[in-house]
Design a protein that fits this description.
Elements: E1 2-7, H1 15-26, E2 31-38, H2 44-52, E3 56-59, H3 68-91, E4 96-99, H4 107-115, E5 119-123, H5 130-142, E6 146-149, H6 152-158, H7 162-166, E7 171-174, E8 197-202, H8 211-218, E9 227-232, H9 240-253, E10 258-262, H10 267-272, E11 276-279, H11 288-295, E12 300-303, E13 318-321, H12 326-337, H13 340-358, H14 360-380
Parallel strand pairs: 1-2, 1-4, 2-3, 4-5, 5-6, 6-7, 8-9, 8-11, 9-10, 11-12, 12-13
Helix pairs in contact: 1-2, 1-14, 3-4, 8-9, 8-12, 11-13
């Protein structure tokens, strides 16, 4: 059985953390997964791992931020944190190191190289600054055994020349963020009948989610009456200024049909009691929340980000709009609000697509494949 150390430097709960937990749980009969998480900082992910009985270890891992001060401190901590990772990899006889945090989280890649262990870099964004993309490309060319990209646009962002430069150097698989289609299921039609059209967005409060566009779209949702938009997600202290700017704009525009309801432990239930799902993000890779909404049989209105266009087809199972286009977003929501038959048709198409292409079983099997391929490539090098 392959022993995998899956490294995450952020202790909060978000899409990548949920993917790690769910894949580890699904593969527990085939792959022995240990998830390395930070000692300090938020403990949300630790609590979720404990609840799911997924093995983990806490190590000194500092999440890299965009703050110049934090970048300097991270560089100073780098030797110590890498050395601790190397020691753990060797002592636990790890077969593969899986760095799950994107291009920002390169410590696990360095540690794997120093420990003489194959490594997989999981890239899941389309907005990394050029210096980090350059670093990632250099490490992938010489030190990395396998690469996972969360969709075609992530590959284009990091490895536009993969076929010419990297094909003979690393294994590469495109793996979308997974959704458990046995958990995220449509609600029976008779179980949710309301006069209010409920629009839902799931995601922590952050500029990348572009909730300012949501505020502006809400101000345009006047016909039909009774459309209400809820945003589920945490408002972290680091985003206090952004949240304050949203609140100020809500007051300025007299928006009364938008609610920030905070985090929820029952996302599937919230989706089942909704009519339309909207992704307003300015940038994404493989947005878990969209796939979960599809699995719950909701029509999708999404900005054209990441690989959403690979699964949401205009007028068939949803609509795509340009990032920041509040007017187009509102128009598509109004169209769906006025046409229940269209909502039902798109929802059924989305459920089918999620089961066939985005299910956790499909994602987990792909993870097992790249683990095996990476070990084979490393041993054959």
């Amino acid at each position: 059985m392959i022993r995998v150390l899956n490294v995450m430097e952020d202790g909060r709960i978000a899409g990548p953390q949920l993917r790690m937990l769910r894949v580890a749980k699904r593969l527990e009969d085939k792959v022995e997964s240990i998830i390395a998480i930070p000692i300090n900082g938020p403990q949300d992910f630790k609590n979720a791992l404990e609840a799911a009985s997924v093995p983990f270890v806490q190590l000194p891992l500092t999440k890299l931020s965009r703050s110049p001060r934090e970048i300097v401190l991270s560089m100073l901590r780098l030797p110590w944190e890498v050395s601790r990772l190397v020691k753990y990899i060797k002592s636990e006889k790890i077969d593969v190191v899986h760095s799950s945090g994107g291009a920002w989280m390169y410590k696990a890649i360095i540690a794997a190289k120093l420990a003489g262990c194959p490594s997989i870099w999981h890239l899941n964004d389309t907005s990394s600054p050029a210096p980090f993309r350059l670093l990632a490309r250099l490490l992938m060319r010489h030190w990395v055994t396998g690469v996972i990209v969360a969709g075609s646009r992530v590959k284009e962002h990091y490895l536009p020349d993969f076929d010419a430069v990297y094909r003979n150097k690393v294994e590469l698989l495109s793996i979308e963020a997974p959704v458990d289609t046995t958990l995220f299921v449509p609600q029976a039609e008779s179980a949710w009948e309301g006069q209010i059209i409920r629009v839902l967005t799931v995601g922590n409060v952050s500029p990348v989610k572009d909730y300012m566009a949501v505020v502006h779209a809400c101000s345009l949702l006047t016909e039909p009456a009774g459309i209400h938009w809820r945003i589920i997600g945490s408002s972290f202290k680091s985003q206090e200024k952004y949240r304050a700017s949203l609140d100020a704009e809500i007051q300025r525009l007299h928006v009364e049909n938008l609610s920030f309801v905070g985090p929820s432990s029952d996302i599937e239930g919230q989706l089942q009691q909704s009519d339309i799902y909207v992704c307003s993000s300015a940038a994404e890779a493989s947005p878990t929340s969209v796939w979960e909404a599809m699995a719950c049989g909701l029509p999708i209105v999404s900005t054209d980000v990441g690989c959403v266009r690979d699964y949401v087809h205009e007028g068939v199972n949803g609509f795509l709009v340009s990032p920041g286009d509040s007017q187009a977003m509102a128009q598509k929501i109004i169209l769906l609000a006025n046409d229940k038959a269209l909502r039902m048709k798109m929802g059924k198409a989305n459920r089918k697509k999620a089961v066939e292409s985005l299910d956790l079983g499909v994602c987990a099997a792909s993870h097992a494949t790249i683990y095996e391929l990476s070990v084979e490539r490393f041993e054959g090098s």
